[in-house]
Design brief:
single chain, about 475 residues, alpha/beta, Alkaline Phosphatase, subunit A, Gyrase A, domain 2, 8-stranded mixed β-sheet, 4-stranded antiparallel β-sheet, 13 helices, 20 strands, globular, binds 2-acetamido-2-deoxy-beta-D-glucopyranose, binds zinc ion, Alkaline_phosphatase_core_sf, membrane, signal
Length: about 475
């Protein structure tokens, strides 16, 4: 009789506590900031007190693996979709889509064709569909109409608008009568100067100090508007930068007849579209052209780059070794710094810091994938994530409520395209979900124990005492 009462009250407690733990994710405010081309180790090149302030009162991830190709548009779109470039469709800054028969070019600001962006749905749209509002100060793609919408508030791209003016807009949107819950802030440096000077130049020091001052200005404005402790600030970037040299140039005209192909994208990943009937000739000529150039037929591109299954990836790509530059001929533009190389190279990696009510304090994490930011944002914003290539479980330990050891690392794998790359499949992704599962399992076990007890009680009375001894500690747990 007492044991029955005990078990009933235990089950009741379990049900109540599992409901309490299975709360929906928080409805948080998020400001996502990108300093273009801010390499992960710029933080240690010169004193960066404002970055270190964010790290000390927030979180820092040391190595963020971004996506191939390590260029601006592909990576900014990955941050807001959680997808690899082959899946979100922005495969380069310069593209040609043979199905649409259209070109996309960052250099000519020919990026406003919606069709290029609509293979994915960026988070500002998902946020708005959930009834929230977003505001964007020049994050790539935020002034493009995608699936018939823009961010609730946005600034048309204009590189002449100062950082301070962009911050003013963001603060206005977060403090207006109908405040946004999701903001985006983009700044072109230190990418531009990194290209011009090369990352190894001592002149990069003042450029990085200037970015640190800009972050200081942002923090000051957030504090003044009483947003510092309510908005989750995430500071990241699209890619790093590596030193180039005029001694490391690969000149395509030396190996290829320029009438045999169209060069869609140049360096360090040359995207080559051979003219009709010229595929073999072009491929053979290039395949053994230069020891620092690796040439792939589209179907041979390594799986780890997730850079194959898209019409906008050209039939042949030629990838330069780190620090090498591909030009059609010597009259082309040479850069002292560049990015776009293999995403496994540390020099291509960006920074990642965050501060706010959702994040732990003074916490350093070794590594994450940039695709993981998207499910993290969805969790913070309490919106349902679209299909993506990230994993919330790989980054939930950045959050202040999470206790990593308590989460069972359940992981099911599935295989795609006949390849042997296991793909993580996440039907649901939240910490409370796992608590719920654990407590649910306990309830089932308790019922099972009671059932056995009753069975034994009615059939083998002699064993009853022994069983009760085993069951008792469980019931009182
Ligand atoms: C999260 O969103 C759901 C609807 O999708 C809503 O019912 C719930 O109240 C939200 N949670 C919070 C904490 O805002
Ligand atoms: C593709 O577009 C170009 C103009 O940009 C046109 O000259 C060409 O005929 C088009 N090709 C096809 C197959 O439609
Ligand atoms: C870009 O911004 C600058 C500085 O605010 C302004 O003078 C200029 O008119 C803007 N250009 C366009 C096209 O709006
Ligand atoms: C360039 O190629 C040479 C010869 O294969 C090799 O020794 C060198 O390491 C390569 N450079 C880079 C940066 O990979
Ligand atoms: C050199 O390459 C550029 C493209 O980078 C091209 O416009 C130019 O015509 C080329 N010059 C020669 C002499 O082939
Ligand atoms: C952060 O952690 C370091 C050591 O890991 C410690 O020296 C420092 O005082 C901590 N800062 C804060 C604000 O807790
Ligand atoms: C990044 O993703 C890959 C799978 O795509 C996974 O194997 C790896 O553990 C992830 N890295 C981190 C640091 O989570
Ligand atoms: C990435 O995610 C997309 C959308 O869910 C999926 O179609 C694709 O197979 C995934 N890629 C990998 C390598 O898992
Ligand atoms: Zn750049």
């Amino acid at each position: 009789m007492t044991s029955k009462f005990l078990s009933v009250s235990f089950i009741l407690a379990a049900v109540i506590s599992s409901t309490a733990f299975s709360l929906q994710p928080d409805q948080q405010k998020v400001l996502l900031v990108s300093f273009d081309g801010f390499r992960w180790d710029y933080l240690y090149k010169v004193p960066t007190p404002h970055f270190h302030y964010v790290m000390e009162y927030g979180v820092h991830v040391k190595q963020v693996t971004n996506v191939f190709i390590t260029k601006t548009y592909p990576n900014h779109y990955t941050l807001v979709t959680g997808l690899f470039a082959e899946n979100h469709g922005i495969v380069a800054n310069d593209m040609f889509d043979p199905i649409l028969n259209k070109s996309f070019s960052l250099d000519h600001m020919n990026i406003y064709d919606s069709e290029f962006w609509e293979e994915a749905t960026p988070i500002w749209i998902t946020n708005q569909r959930a009834g929230h509002t977003s505001g964007a100060a020049m994050w790539p793609g935020t002034d493009v109409k995608i699936h018939k919408s823009f961010p609730t508030h946005y600034m048309p791209y204009n590189e002449s608008v100062s950082f301070e003016d962009r911050v003013t807009k963001i603060i206005d949107w977060f403090t207006s009568k109908e405040p946004i819950n999701l903001g985006f802030l983009y700044w072109e440096e230190p990418d531009d100067m990194g290209h011009q000077l090369g990352p190894d130049s001592p002149l990069m020091g003042p450029i990085i100090s200037d970015i640190d001052n800009k972050l200081g200005y942002l923090i000051q404005m957030l504090k003044k508007a009483n947003l510092w402790n309510t908005v989750n600030l995430i500071i990241t970037s699209d890619h790093g930068m590596t030193q180039c040299s005029e001694e490391r140039i690969i000149e395509l005209d030396q190996y290829l007849d320029k009438d045999h192909y169209t060069l869609i994208d140049q360096s360090p990943v040359a995207a080559i579209l051979p003219k009709e009937g010229k595929f073999d000739e072009v491929y053979e000529a290039l395949a053994h052209a230069h020891p620092n150039l690796t040439v792939y037929k589209k179907e041979e591109i390594p799986e780890r780059w997730h850079y194959k299954y898209n019409d906008r990836i050209q039939p042949v790509i030629a990838v330069a070794d780190e620090g090498w530059h591909i030009l059609q001929n010597k009259s082309g533009d040479f850069l002292l710094g560049n990015h776009g190389y293999d995403n496994a190279l540390a020099e291509m990696h960006p920074i990642f810091l965050a501060h706010g009510p959702a994040f732990r304090k003074n916490f350093t994490k070794e590594a994450m994938n940039s695709t993981d930011l998207y499910p993290l944002l969805c969790h913070l914003l309490n919106v349902t994530a679209m299909p993506h290539n990230g994993s919330f479980r790989n980054v939930h330990d950045l959050l202040s409520l999470a206790t990593p050891s308590a989460i069972p690392h359940v992981q099911s794998t599935t295989f795609i395209f006949g390849s042997d790359i296991p793909v993580e499949y996440e039907p649901e992704e939240s910490y409370p979900y796992f608590i719920g599962v654990c407590l649910g399992s306990i309830i089932v076990i308790v019922f099972f124990v009671i059932f056995i007890k009753h069975l034994i009680h009615s059939q083998i009375p002699a064993l009853q005492d022994m069983q009760a001894e085993i069951a008792q500690p469980l019931l009182q747990a």
